[in-house]
Amino acid sequence: MIHVSIIGATGYTGVELVRLLGLREDVVLDHLTSRTYAGQKIQHLFPHLLGHIDHTCEELDLEQVTTDSDVIFVALPHGHALPIAKKAKEKGKKVIDLGADFRLKDAAVYEEWYKVAHTEPELLEEAVYGLPEWDRDAIKDATVIANPGCFVTSILLGLMPLMKKGWVVPNSIVCDSKSGTSGAGRAGNVANLFTEVESSFKAYGVAHHRHTPEIEQLLTQMAGTDTMIQFTPHLVPMSRGILSTIYATVKEKTTAAEIQSLFEEAYADEPFVQVLPAGMWPMTKSVKGTNNCQLGVTYDERTGRVIIVSVIDNLMKGAAGQAVQNMNLMFGLAETTGLQMIGLFP
Amino acid sequence: MIHVSIIGATGYTGVELVRLLGLREDVVLDHLTSRTYAGQKIQHLFPHLLGHIDHTCEELDLEQVTTDSDVIFVALPHGHALPIAKKAKEKGKKVIDLGADFRLKDAAVYEEWYKVAHTEPELLEEAVYGLPEWDRDAIKDATVIANPGCFVTSILLGLMPLMKKGWVVPNSIVCDSKSGTSGAGRAGNVANLFTEVESSFKAYGVAHHRHTPEIEQLLTQMAGTDTMIQFTPHLVPMSRGILSTIYATVKEKTTAAEIQSLFEEAYADEPFVQVLPAGMWPMTKSVKGTNNCQLGVTYDERTGRVIIVSVIDNLMKGAAGQAVQNMNLMFGLAETTGLQMIGLFP
Amino acid sequence: MIHVSIIGATGYTGVELVRLLGLREDVVLDHLTSRTYAGQKIQHLFPHLLGHIDHTCEELDLEQVTTDSDVIFVALPHGHALPIAKKAKEKGKKVIDLGADFRLKDAAVYEEWYKVAHTEPELLEEAVYGLPEWDRDAIKDATVIANPGCFVTSILLGLMPLMKKGWVVPNSIVCDSKSGTSGAGRAGNVANLFTEVESSFKAYGVAHHRHTPEIEQLLTQMAGTDTMIQFTPHLVPMSRGILSTIYATVKEKTTAAEIQSLFEEAYADEPFVQVLPAGMWPMTKSVKGTNNCQLGVTYDERTGRVIIVSVIDNLMKGAAGQAVQNMNLMFGLAETTGLQMIGLFP
Amino acid sequence: MIHVSIIGATGYTGVELVRLLGLREDVVLDHLTSRTYAGQKIQHLFPHLLGHIDHTCEELDLEQVTTDSDVIFVALPHGHALPIAKKAKEKGKKVIDLGADFRLKDAAVYEEWYKVAHTEPELLEEAVYGLPEWDRDAIKDATVIANPGCFVTSILLGLMPLMKKGWVVPNSIVCDSKSGTSGAGRAGNVANLFTEVESSFKAYGVAHHRHTPEIEQLLTQMAGTDTMIQFTPHLVPMSRGILSTIYATVKEKTTAAEIQSLFEEAYADEPFVQVLPAGMWPMTKSVKGTNNCQLGVTYDERTGRVIIVSVIDNLMKGAAGQAVQNMNLMFGLAETTGLQMIGLFP
Fold this sequence. Notes:
Chains A, B, C, D: It is found in: Cytoplasm. Chains A, B, C, D: It holds the Pfam family Semialdhyde_dhC_1. The structure is a homotetramer of 346-residue chains. With 346 residues, the first copy, chain A, is of the alpha/beta class. Chain A is built from twelve helices and 13 strands. The mean pLDDT of chain A is 97. Chains in contact: A-B, A-C, A-D, B-C, B-D, C-D. At the A-D interface, strand 7, strand 8, strand 9, strand 10 and strand 12 of A face strand 7, strand 8, strand 9, strand 10 and strand 12 of D.
């Protein structure tokens, strides 16, 4: 049995972890923490849990949590995972951070984009970036996982086969991403009210979104050469899902068929990445509630660009699902344990 | 292994059965039939099945289907289940009809409301109404199951404890029901376009909906006395979910606490019915993707009415989920097999 | 020129008043007040006003407002209109209160349901209930208007022809109402986030909603006999619109045709009420953005009930539109001035 | 009085023209044609017109229409406007084609992308492209107007100031556009059902959408040099609205402030184009129901790209609203006649 605690269980990412872990027979949920709702039954806050999860939300007791649990999922805003990971490391326990604290290898870049000091540079160095399709072996041995950002995951999986080949013209990449509103969290913000979001569409964080350096860091690793991107996130009137439309100019002429084959081969053995048949384009609804990433690709002979459309569920492959996939790897389980599910359609 | 075929696999109910049965290790999917899409891979029609279900849709070959399968799910409009059930019966196989052909015990009433002749009166007599919370023993021994209507299920579970007690004033019941649009099926109807439905709400079938006689038949059985209801369905701009608000005048004064206890006791052992704590009212989102029914109840001292709010997922407890629950019972499995899931929220 | 101020201009009702009055050539907008956003340009808060409305939001200066303006619209929570109406009265100015402070004629009832003391009983007595279809002559001479509640308007217009005839069995009325979420206001409440509301449906305030006594007060006046109702509000995943489904048992048998005629005649000369042809049922989308109320009616011979389905736009005929209609009447203008518009469809 | 007929009045674009023209005191609606609904009252098909528009839909009688009307709006699929324009020309009447028949100046390009022959090359030469912000003088004298495509309008208004200056690197432009579903028309297509579209997002027509040559034709005219673009449309779960995110590399370094000024000056006198203050980004909801285009712009110093976000209502500035703007110009009216309206929010 794997003993698990979830720090920040009443955010959308946290409660999605409860959905994924709460019924597993090989997992024990020890502690569900919530500063706002401590003392309340989580099934009364989230009635979809009624009859399944009887836990009461607790204040975080770091000593207790790291004593009881083998792995601690941190589903909190950036900055909060640092002391938790430090304590867990002391106790020999594992941490999966769903926030940004261990994603950027350069602490100075972290501090520039997130405006807080990074207090654990040694842990940062040790932390492993939790994208299994990129380096699952490193994940198996990790004690601290930096779970990738949601936009980031959709873009990295969309570009990885091209980057590894070195086919992309440096700095030609444009990533136009669209997200459902659960990515904005569960705070009572006027801008995220139903009335404001429904039947509307907008861009935000143009030219300045914090996921930019994370994407560039990984693409640079994949290509082996400095890579800069243009990234624009948008808000879609839907709860779940991210779709990224990615444009990349290639160095030499190619064909749509060659690109199709490249992607099909690259992901042939990946359980959670599906390349659609040529001519089909993915929609976010097809992956709702699942850990899947679906990709459509083509090459535009007129313009010399490869175009990739990538969809994930931002709370699953973009957060909680990928975190569980990482946990499975870290504990020597089959990677798909508890994640084999068909999406909810319609 | 239970061998299963789904007749009408490309409607919303049919493809939901595929979701529920396609990954079960104790079930083999033999045939998925579709008149419209025969010859096409179902995972290309429904990309949420990609990587999971490799079947090609077939024309219905009744001889073959009833030879190969132990149980046949019929997810077709009314009238179509009659010949299928007849053939299955001859071959000694079981049928679960998700349509209306075996729901009304009086063939004349069926013909009045559905405008077609009932050609199988003997099978009709033999068929068992598939509401496990009402009579699961009968279901265990059945060969033909009439799977209840979606609105009907939400209302029957909402009223059953009261009806059994005989507390309700005859003919005082008003059932005001609201459904997501997946209940309208997957035909290309202008009235069901996104543009027409989005951000709007309407009533339909006022005073004349076909579920009326089915509800009255069952309530009459439960109460042991003739019962007539007022039933109005409405269309909600959401894909899944039914909420029924039910008003019933009681013969003698009671209290909210007494009604709360009545319901809690009635459903204490039911795996798929949850009575919310007093003062909480259910929302459809809490049961999305699950086989659950959640109930909120109260008594209004001013008016002498009990008010019950009942929610289900119309494609699950209102159709495919309940059908699988019935299959589990018919084959001696644990009733919850393959149906233990936490809803998708948000 | 009519000089107008709007107190609480940055709520949904307030900003709807700005939409209706901001481009009128016979109206001058003096002051737009907002406690939260004082000092900010309203067109930057609400970019749909860009290029049209150049006002800066102000703190309320009651002396100034009542000096400058002929009529003051109060779009604030209950309790706040009392001192404003008092001051306006002193200055000989008119007030249209879109809140609840002057709706209930019995101050004790007001205090019971709203939990605050009513400090202006004389003004309360003088105030006129602003439902033009009920008593437009009284409105013409009023100085303080109690603008009706949104649910209330949809129900009163649905029942008025029946009540005036005295045909309804006392206490048989059930009002099952469904509202878009703009009715919940523009506060940053978690329960009203897009993620929580989207693709879901719920009931709230069952048996205890504050609009109940207001509805009963008016129905009692209309029928000339004490009338008690059952009222249940629900939340629809849409921004605008209310649909009320109203059930009323009639004392003597009637026919659908007779009911249809009763309604058509009752509203033949009303500019903002449309009775749909027999067999058609209204949807909220048809009145979006307009001051219209559309009604569908029938009589169910099986049950002896009249069923009325009534739709309005909650921010228009349910609030700002009706307020402007009242202003037109109070200032001797054509009642439809500035309100003649075709709804936005789709 | 201007006599007007609408050919194809029961599509979304046609019925939007009815909304805009039906209450104008300087316009007479002569004929509303519809092949599908001929003989039916348009207010029964579209109840938002109840009480306003009493017309019965007619089969198209081309002789009659061109005799009676001064201007004919054609809201039909491509190909159908050719004979109508020919006949109107003979009768000395004006035509505004909301389809594609007169948009592409090169008949061969039209035939390549639309797969039909162009039978009226002389009219094609004479036709004027109906984007007032580009060349309103030509529109004033035109007899045949090619009303621009919806995506096209959002992109041209977004790029025009840059193109006229000649600042853009040829072939660097990426246009990532997102549209509500009313753009897909009112046919009963399964892919456009509420259930399929709700809470989902997808790309379509990647690298091959028919608006591509139209955009390139106009950008080339504006810049005076051959221009090729990358254009990808997407479908948003909303009824109305288009947002285009446009990326263009500029030849020489610039600043966000310079770009902001360029746009503010370019559109200072345009009644329907609003440049948002620096740092604000538009959302589609702000222009819902209006003829406005709102723009947000910046320059990314890291990447050397200008980024423009442009929003319109696809049925208004993207179709019917712009058509009416063109009609106003053609008949010597104030350009904003009947189009001065504040958007519907929320």
